[in-house]
UniProtKB/TrEMBL annotation:
Gene3D superfamilies: Rhodopsin 7-helix transmembrane proteins. It is found in: Membrane. InterPro entries: GPCR1_Superfamily_Member, GPCR_Rhodpsn, GPCR_Rhodpsn_7TM. Keywords: Membrane, Transmembrane, Transmembrane helix. It holds the Pfam family 7tm_1. It comes from Esox lucius (Northern pike). The chain crosses the membrane at residues 23-48, 81-101, 137-163, 195-214, 235-260, 266-289. PANTHER family: G_PROTEIN_RECEP_F1_2 DOMAIN-CONTAINING PROTEIN, ODORANT RECEPTOR-RELATED. This is G-protein coupled receptors family 1 profile domain-containing protein.
Length: 317
């Protein structure tokens, strides 16, 4: 939903939803948003109330991923609700919302790459890890992730300024990327940056995984830690694959709406839930409850812990 060509709200449909259908869709999206933000909020509370976690680069990067997911989900929920409450949104405000949404979307694979590199350094270069993965360097890396993730969006805005009159930015339009960033140069930027970012992330994940595997076979580090690092990087790959679902969502929309033209609205809505919102539940399943050190400090938000633990047992174990 936050990807450039995949913000497929019901406003993209040829017809407006009836009241009951619109209400059900909005309640569903808001409910998912509240659940994800509540679970992630429990993890954030645990992090910020324990000093030990705040000095560990691994947990700092994890919290960056959680915060990024929270912002992304919140933006998706707001944009979905606004598409019904205020279908013709001011273009300037819409651009700001879309920039934040796309920035968080681009941050996800970059953050996964950074987390894999941190695990690689911890396992393969344990003596250098305290020197390289310091708190200050970790926050600098997070700042770089946000800057790099923002570049494609700002390029689109510059292109739009060049090809659109100033009156366009004060007009009202349906707030989705295809209706705002209409230039062919924006499409080229979208595909080029996606290919570049994903190639970098995949190369990083593959390289770090095999280096950790070879390190474990050579017995140069703790084999238990190596096995845990291997599993973590594998789960990074799974998470990256799920985050990539948003890139193929437009293709799925086209194919499924051709097969089920009478259910176009429902198909596009369900596709967005599956490819954009549900993958945000994966972060707490992968990290928050696999890490025993982190799990035992989660004293509050017991309902969220039990809920995610049940999901993790059914999905992974």
């Amino acid at each position: 939903m936050c990807s450039s060509n995949n913000l497929n709200f019901s406003t993209l449909n040829m017809r407006r939803d009836v009241f009951e259908e619109a209400l059900l869709k909005n309640l569903t999206v808001v409910l998912f948003g509240l659940i994800i933000n509540y679970i992630n909020g429990t993890l954030l509370y645990t992090f910020f109330t324990n000093v030990n976690f705040q000095s560990d680069s691994r947990y700092i990067l994890y919290m960056q991923l959680i915060i990024n997911d929270n912002v992304m989900v919140s933006m998706m929920v707001n944009l979905h609700v606004l598409s019904y409450v205020c279908p013709n949104l001011n273009v300037s405000l819409c651009i700001v919302l879309l920039l934040i949404c796309e920035n968080t979307h681009k941050n996800t694979p970059l953050n996964l790459a950074a987390m894999s590199i941190e695990r690689f350094i911890a396992i393969c270069h344990p003596l250098q890890h305290p020197l390289i993965c310091t708190v200050s360097w970790t926050y600098m890396l997070i700042a770089c992730i946000w800057v790099v993730g923002a570049i494609p969006g700002f390029i689109k805005v510059i292109i739009t300024f060049v090809f659109k009159p100033l009156s366009f930015f004060s007009s009202g339009r349906m707030c989705y990327p295809i209706n705002i960033f209409q230039s062919v140069y924006n499409y080229n930027t979208y595909y080029a940056t996606n290919i570049l970012y994903l190639c970098f992330v995949w190369i990083t994940l593959i390289y770090t995984y095999f280096r950790v595997v070879f390190s474990a076979k050579a017995a140069t580090s703790d084999p238990v830690s190596s096995r845990k690092a291997q599993m973590t990087i594998r789960l990074h790959v799974v998470q990256l694959l799920l985050s990539m679902l948003s890139y193929i969502a437009p293709v799925l929309d086209t194919a499924l709406t051709v097969l089920f033209p009478d259910f176009r609205s429902a198909v596009m809505f369900c596709n967005n839930i599956i490819t954009n919102i549900l993958p945000r539940l994966l972060s707490p399943l992968i990290y928050g409850l696999r890490d025993q050190k982190f799990k035992k400090h989660m004293k509050r938000g017991l309902g969220a812990i039990l809920f995610v633990e049940l999901l993790s047992e059914r999905c992974f174990w």
